[in-house]
């Protein structure tokens, strides 16, 4: 019975907060993406449905004298299908990645297409989860259809 009452209370709070939830509009935001392709994200909400931005990631690893560093830059575009409550969206990202291992350097470019779902408590703070369904490798050339990379993230918008 306590579990049922707790679940009912949580559902009521979520329903009440959904009434005030809205996607950001005309605001800049910063965020963090965790998972495959982790990094900081910088976003501008052109309007409640269209967000553009870029992801920056850097990783440096050293194990037993061998070192590796990776830099990633990924401009992206999100089209939010709704603007309040739980918000599904379509996503496209162009990614440039540079990897250096023991003095040898390689780079790749790819176009990722996928989607996700976000929830904005208000026009300032939101959480999201996303997957890329299609990876079109431009250099080197490749095509991959899968449900990875998957990421979760948080966004903080300001400026209104």
What does this structure look like?
There is one protein chain. The protein has about 160 residues and is mainly beta. The chain has one domain (about 1-160): Beta Barrel (Porin). About 10% of the residues lie in helices and about 65% in strands. The protein is built from 1 helix and 9 strands; from the N terminus they run αβββββββββ. The chain has one helix at about 1-20; strands at about 25-35, 40-45, 50-65, 65-80, 85-100, 105-120, 125-140, 140-145, 150-160. The protein has an 8-stranded antiparallel β-barrel with strand order 1-2-3-4-5-6-7-9. Strand 3 and strand 4 (about 65-80) form a beta hairpin. The longest helix has 17 residues, at about 1-20. Mean pLDDT is about 85; it is low at about 5-20.
Provide a concise account of the structure shown:
By secondary structure, this protein is mainly beta.
Give descriptors for this structure:
160 residues, mainly beta, Porin, 8-stranded antiparallel barrel, 67% strand, globular
Oligomer: single chain
Could you name the CATH class?
Mainly Beta
Q: What is the helix tally?
A: 1
End-to-end CA span:
44 Å
From the helix content, strand content and strand pairing, which structural class follows?
mainly beta
Rg over C-alpha atoms, rounded to the nearest angstrom: 18 Å
Number of domains: 1
Q: What order do the strands of the largest sheet run in, or round the barrel if closed?
A: 1-2-3-4-5-6-7-9
Strand fraction equals: over 45%
CATH architecture: Beta Barrel
* Average residue pLDDT: 86
Q: What is the CATH topology classification name?
A: Porin
Secondary structure: helix percent? 10-25%
Order of helices and strands: HEEEEEEEEE
